[in-house]
Design brief:
Structural class: alpha+beta
Bound molecules: 2-amino-4-trifluoromethylsulfanyl-butyric acid, cobalt (II) ion
Number of strands: 15
Number of domains: 1
CATH topology: Creatine Amidinohydrolase
Helix content: 25-40%
CATH superfamily: Creatinase/methionine aminopeptidase superfamily
CATH architecture: Alpha-Beta Complex
C-alpha cells in the first residue's frame, strides 16, 4: 500500500487531506495487522457521500417493508408480495436488488416456516393462518444498496413459532449491541449464537451476513458461528448486515434441487431471520436499515 503524505487527498475519496482524514485510522489498522488480526480492506470503508447514498436507499427499503407489514395477510400469495415490493420500490425511484441478481427471478425473497432464506415468490404459494414468513427486501438507489428483512406472523401463530420469531429478533439486537470500532465480528457472532443456544435453537453456519454499499454483497462474510475476539476487526466506516438464520432444531440446511435458491432446514423444523444493515461509527453503530 502506497504511503500517503498528510497533505495528499485521502484514499477514501472524501476530498479531505489524508492527515485530517484516515491517517490515524491507518495507524490503528497497522497495529491490528501486526498482531495478525484480520482487518478491513480500504475499499469497504465508506465516506460520507457514500453513506448518504446508502441512507437514501435504506429509506426506500424501510418504507417497502412497512408497506408489506400493513398489507400482508392470510390468503395472499407470495407473488402478490413480490408485486407490492416491485411497485412500491420503483414508485419511490428504486430498483429491487434481488431482481435478476445472479439469476434470481423475483424482486424479494419470501421464506415461510421451514424455509431458511431465499424463498422465491410464486402464485402457487398462499399464506395460511399460523405461518411465519421472512420478507427480505433489498433496494438499489443511484447505485447504492440497502438490505433488510423482517418476520411477519400470519393470523394466529403458535406459541412456539412466536417465540422463535421473538428470539431471532433478540439475537439481532444483542449482536447489534456488540458493534463498535476495534471490536471483532466474532463479538457479534458469539452474542447471537449464545442467545440462540440458550433458547434451545441453532444458528445456520453456511449462510450469513455481508458487507454492503456499492455492491449487494461485499466483504466481509459475516458469520454467526465464530468466537468472540476472532474474525475481522470492525472499523469506522464499515457497513454490513446482521442477518442470522435461527433454526428451531438442527443447524443443517439444504438447497432446493429444482430452483437452486431456496434453502430449507434439513430436519424440517422452523427457521426465523431478521436482517439489519449497520455502520460502524467512531464510538458505536448507526442502524442504517431495518
Ligand atoms: N438479504 C439476502 C442476502 O443477502 C438477500 C438475498 S437476495 C437474492 O442473501 F437475490 F440473493 F436472493
Ligand atoms: Co443480506
Amino acid at each position: 500500500m502506497k504511503k500517503l503524505r498528510k497533505e495528499e487527498p485521502c484514499w477514501c475519496k472524501s476530498g479531505k487531506a489524508y492527515g485530517e482524514c484516515h491517517a490515524a485510522f491507518d495507524r490503528k489498522i497497522e497495529i491490528f495487522k501486526k498482531k495478525f488480526h484480520q482487518v478491513p480492506p480500504r475499499n469497504i470503508i465508506k465516506n460520507e457521500e457514500m453513506l448518504e447514498g446508502m441512507r437514501a436507499s435504506s429509506k426506500i427499503n424501510v418504507a417497502v417493508l412497512d408497506y408489506v407489514g400493513e398489507h400482508i395477510k392470510a390468503g395472499m400469495t407470495t407473488e402478490e408480495i413480490d408485486q407490492m415490493v416491485y411497485e412500491q420500490t420503483t414508485a419511490m425511484g428504486g430498483i429491487p436488488a434481488p431482481l435478476n441478481y445472479e439469476g434470481f427471478p423475483k424482486s424479494v425473497c419470501t421464506s415461510i416456516n421451514n424455509e431458511v432464506c431465499h424463498g422465491i415468490p410464486s402464485s402457487e404459494i398462499t399464506l395460511v393462518d399460523g405461518d411465519i414468513i421472512n420478507v427480505d427486501c433489498s433496494t438499489i438507489l443511484n447505485g447504492y444498496y440497502s438490505d433488510s428483512s423482517r418476520m411477519y406472523c400470519i393470523g394466529q401463530v403458535s406459541e412456539e413459532r412466536q417465540k422463535l420469531v421473538r428470539v431471532a429478533k433478540e439475537c439481532v439486537e444483542l449482536g447489534l449491541a456488540q458493534v463498535k470500532p476495534w471490536g471483532h465480528l466474532g463479538d457479534v457472532a458469539q452474542a447471537i449464537n449464545d442467545h440462540a443456544k440458550e433458547n434451545g435453537y441453532s444458528v445456520v453456519r453456511e449462510v450469513g451476513g455481508h458487507g454492503i454499499g456499492l455492491e449487494f454483497h461485499e466483504n466481509p462474510f459475516v458469520s454467526y458461528v465464530i468466537k468472540k475476539g476472532t474474525g475481522m476487526v470492525m472499523a469506522p466506516g464499515m457497513t454490513f448486515t446482521i442477518e442470522p438464520m435461527i433454526n428451531a432444531g438442527r443447524p443443517d440446511i439444504y438447497v432446493d434441487s429444482v430452483n437452486d435458491w431456496t434453502i430449507y432446514t434439513d430436519d424440517d423444523t422452523d427457521s426465523a431471520q431478521w436482517e439489519i444493515m449497520v455502520r460502524v461509527t467512531d464510538d458505536g453503530y448507526e442502524v442504517m436499515c431495518w
